[in-house]
């Protein structure tokens, strides 16, 4: 699970040009706007594509549905960016990877807490102590639960009188 939690994920693909144009056509057909000639419409489309085109298709689909319902007139880029701010644009795979990362961190923390609790109780054979991760032994040393010897080994700290 550690590998899943730390794997590199590629950024989601930008919305395909054809799908983006379809969204713009739906908005232009559904929402009134001022009359523009073909050149002005081409510039408008290029501008919207430049500002919004890097978003994945699922975000563009959301824009299309939300804009048709919310706006009375063809929306500005700012209005569409405000709509995007309402939706989680994080890639679902990134959310899953991050959730796995939280599970891994929680499990490791629970295991560390259990190991430190055993050491506090004076439990744990030397073989078990030797098998602990080095970082955990360092933490146990700083909490005065283990002694670090000159050779780098660790032993349980003995109470006076033991």
In a few lines, what is going on in this structure?
The chain has helices at 2-6, 17-30, 38-52, 57-70, 77-86, 92-120, 126-131, 134-142, and strands at residues 146-148, 154-156. The protein is mainly alpha-helical.
Give structural notes.
The structure is a single chain. By secondary structure, the chain is mainly alpha-helical. The protein has 2 domains: 70 residues, Helicase, Ruva Protein, domain 3, CATH 1.10.8; 65 residues, no CATH class. Helices cover 63% and strands 4% of the residues. It contains 8 helices and 2 strands. It has a two-stranded antiparallel sheet with strand order 1-2. β1 and β2 form a beta hairpin. α2 packs parallel to α4. The chain is rod-shaped, with a radius of gyration of 29 Å. The two termini are 42 Å apart. The model has no long low-confidence stretch (mean pLDDT 86).
